[in-house]
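The protein record filed here:
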Amino acid sequence: MKAVQLVKSIGPSGLRVAELSDLDPADDLVVVDLHAAGVSFPDLLQTTGSYQMVQELPCVLGVEGAGIVRSAPRGSGLTEGQRVAVLALSGSWQQTVAVPVGYAFPLPDTVSLTAASGFVMNHLTVHFALVERARARRGEIVLVHGAAGGVGTAALHLAAAVGLETIAVVSSDEKAAVAKGNGATHTVLVDGFKDRVLDLTGGRGVDIVVDPVGGDRFTDSLRSLAAGGRALVLGFTGGSIPTVKVNRLLLENISVVGVGWGEFIREDPGYLARQWEELSPLLTSGALTVPEPTLYELDNAAAALQLLSERAATGKISLSLR
């Protein structure tokens, strides 16, 4: 089978397409022939050895995808030929993966395999952020940074599905259009976003900030919070890690909340199933829609990562594997 491996930690140029041995059926694992695999910011960090978990080279990148079950353990509830999304911690940028039963998620007919290929990382992270960490309540207002990117668009769709109003922060009018197309209630440009947010909320501020960007906008994010608001830290695609003067937290009883979905499921693997129980009905009913990603061919994986590096991507990016 074909796969994309990282062979040198020199950035996207360190990727190579390789031919690997096919996988055999396993008694305790679900074997899935993937049609597409998601591309995410941690994959970019992996190429320079700057991610928190450094893999031994050569390694297959990617952790999510979607495809068709080739074989599944007896009693797993999965059957040959079934459509599933997967969390593949051993690498998803390959044509076939083998994952534990709890890491394969049956897909409703409302979601295509290409759309599902980029669903797991972003949507389950955002679900964890809003539901588990922020304890979001219907009718609250959520400010979403990087709202035209993969995490941002997932946040807009999921917020709409659970009854939250959203204000999307973007860097251009073109990205504002993308955010609007993905369900943003309002859009604001990043320059001067705090004042615009306060105008939109009548001076009150927002209840929740979803921030996968970090950098120098974080202080104004805190200033944009209403009393009792929660700022969710998902990552630092902006490059720099902000610091917080904790006296700001006292003024309006606001909170800064870490969102480490990966760490959480390592401690509690059963949480994945509970998340899917909540998300699957939303997908089936159409309340939660999953947009189609921008697809790159397998041998163009480096170009896909370069787009993330330049922060030029809108929406989700996936690799076509078939």
User: Anything to note?
Assistant: The chain has a mean pLDDT of 93. The radius of gyration is 19 Å. The chain has two domains: 2-119+290-320, 122-262.
